[in-house]
Automatic annotation (TrEMBL):
Keywords linked to the UniProt accession: Hydrolase, Metal-binding, Zinc
Name of the protein described by the UniProt record: Amidohydrolase family protein
Domain Aminodeoxyfutalosine deaminase/Imidazolonepropionase-like composite: from-to ranges: 31-51
Alphabetized PANTHER family for the sequence: AMIDOHYDROLASE-RELATED DOMAIN-CONTAINING PROTEIN (PTHR43794:SF11), AMINOHYDROLASE SSNA-RELATED (PTHR43794)
Residues covered by the Amidohydrolase-related domain: 65-427
Pfam families hit by this protein: Amidohydro_1, HUTI_composite_bact
Family: Belongs to the metallo-dependent hydrolases superfamily. ATZ/TRZ family.
Residues spanning the signal sequence: none
Amino acid sequence: MSPDGPIPADFVIRNAWIVTMDATRQIWRDGALAVAGDRIVAVGPTDEVLASVAAREVIDGSRFVLTPGLVNCHVHITGEPITRGYVPDDTDWRTNVFDWLIPTYLAQTPAEEQLAATLCSVEMLRNGVTTFVEAGTILDLPAVMGAVDAVGIRGRLGQWIQDRAFAPTDDQATLTREAIAKLEAQLDRWPVDDGKRLAAWGCLVGHNTATDDLWRAATTLVRERGLGISAHMSADPADPEYYLATTGKRALLHLAEIGALGDHLSLTHMIHLDDAELDAVAQSGTRVTHCPLTAMKGGYGATAVGKFPEMQARGVPIQLGTDGNNNGNIADLMRAMYLLAGLFKDARRQGDLFSAYEVLECATLKGAAAAGLAGTVGALVPGMKADFVAHDRQRPEWTPLLNVVNQLVWSADGRGVHSVWVDGVRVVEDYRVTSVDEAALYARVQEAAPGLIARAGLSIPCAWPVA
């Protein structure tokens, strides 16, 4: 107890396993966590915490493992959540993106974007994700911001930003000026504020869609404001090939030359890199978001040519994303954890790559840093935001419980997420989101999906007859 008496708390959860992710990576087998308002005020052995706080409510946590909320650093929250599974899984990257995904995005209405964002936010929360970084393919940002805010998740979002003149009749100067103005306007309208869960972020589409002028302007804007940029890069050889053809250098070397690399930047996919590009990334502090679910479905070559073990060895910050790419599961970051822990062990026949401990750091602390929230989320430490997850131990995959970190990465998945708190508010309770009528939501999505696909000029293919 402090000299000033017990610490006031709204509630305390006692007798739980707690994986703190604090500076020493302390784990408590019989721990307690106390919350006041939107902050954690005490964490430690149950007896010590109960003696030091005066809580209005005491919750029995003996059924649960408490962890920090997971951070999904790359997810498309519109378009794909309400069309999941309809894109064939036998297409190459370019066909998948240009013939299937982009037409779907461009056919959306604001109402459909809201519906998709609501569904994706619900799915993330129910899988233990409390913070996300959007992938930069939102068309109507105000509509999506409103939908996401109503669900109660924390996020960094951005509107579709690109400026490359693809058509001969395009005015490049106008496209660049409009893209920079759009980015600046959204950063002004939704600034990062400690009291708000949602803020705008520098979400560029990336690949080969941004001119050097846009890269430079976006870099200046976010550095002035202490924010970050997220962009797609080098999922396919098309990206380095484009930069070689137009600049004489591969993608990452060119971005280094124009001053775009740095710890403000998170690049997603980053599979088709050579050694010189890896050096540039490592030396600059640039962050990398790996999306193993998408790499597997799209056949990107992550394990065949990807240099993720080399990045890890060089100290490149690696975080995780679930992406989209019409995956069956868009929001279960625990599945991505499992894949990161296993794929490179198998590909390299080297069992010490990406230990469960390192993978959990990628999904929490490193993800928080990539979202500009280091020291705010990603760990269960007094003073940090009360964003945390209660995993249900009364399930077969959690029994017996011996090494809790191995259990989280190798045995558990999002199906065992019983409850979730964001800003100290219980947004998932007993496997249901508290802010949304889930049954009504699922019915609306089922009704909306076929119309969106038809409007995009596409169909729902299936190799087997459907009567």
